[in-house]
Write a structure and sequence with these properties.
The protein has about 325 residues and is mainly alpha-helical. It has two domains: about 100 residues, no CATH class; about 220 residues, Orthogonal Bundle (MetI-like fold), CATH 1.10.3720. Helices cover about 75% and strands about 0% of the residues. The protein has 13 helices and two strands; from the N terminus they run ααααββααααααααα. It has a two-stranded antiparallel sheet with strand order 1-2. A hairpin with a 4-residue loop joins β1 and β2. α7 packs across α8 and α11 crosses α12. It starts with a helix and ends in a 7-residue tail after the last helix.
Amino acid sequence: MMGFLLRRLTGAAVTLLAISVIIYAVFYVAPGDVAQITCGPRCSPVQVHQVSEQLRLGDPLYVQYGHFLQGIFAGRDFSTGTSVLHCNAPCLGLSYRTDQQVTQLILTKLPVTASLTLGAMVMWLILGVGTGVLSAWRRGRPTERLLTGVTLAGTATPVFVIGLVLMIVVCGTLGWLPYPQYVPFSDDPQQWAWNLLLPWLSLALIESAKYARLTRASMLETLADDHVRTFRAYGVSERRIIGRHALRGALAPVIALNANDFGSMFGGAVLTESLFGIPGIGRELVHAVNVVDLPVVVGMVLVTGFFVVLANAAADVLYAVADRRVVLS
């Protein structure tokens, strides 16, 4: 087990290094003057030079990337033109517009996005896996056809449409909830949950459709296995077969999909955060792209990749827990 964990962590570290090289190259080996693009068309030559100095664009690309890695592991100093700012490790750079450390900016937004992602993940797993199991159990019956139609409709509907409909109906027409306005958990846990309920539900309704279809397909495949037919021949109840044997064997693809969705949601819940006014990483990433703040964009994309790799590494371990046929070696 320990050997597997060490190999998986080593693979994750190599993957993150490769991701950082690709991300850095994509954003800094762009055609044209990166400093001018970053600063904007209204910047004076002095301002463009200041941005170029801060981003160290005069150095060879491999030296620039070396400084970037040095900042992550040891910290580095940045010149703002009038002073020198030290960025503590792990340093992902400084926002050239605010001179704020990208790491600190991400850390202030991370709890908000984590609140949205974790709550929505619990909902989409309960709704998706539960619907998929029920569809497989009631295969060929009206219940299965109804659930299949609902999941197809959920897959085809954009999240902003569901979010708008929920706000109009739940908040406007029925008045059951106030319009969402993010409240930190430390200020008021109850209001935090009430204001995130609609964003959670909007994301969960979209994501659960994928999990329902995947769970249904995996369950039907597992129910056709020889060992399941043997259980039936020995008189084991259908409820126990589904809950204890078939579902456990069908969870591996669900775990893999959830790992990807959970990791990417840290930087990919852009529409949901923008629609509901949630000040998370996705919304901040959109703002950074609009103002072409490259250090912030690079840092946030790299953090998103980190969570995707971390979630997939955790999923590999969970495979063995969910499916006894998987051997960690």
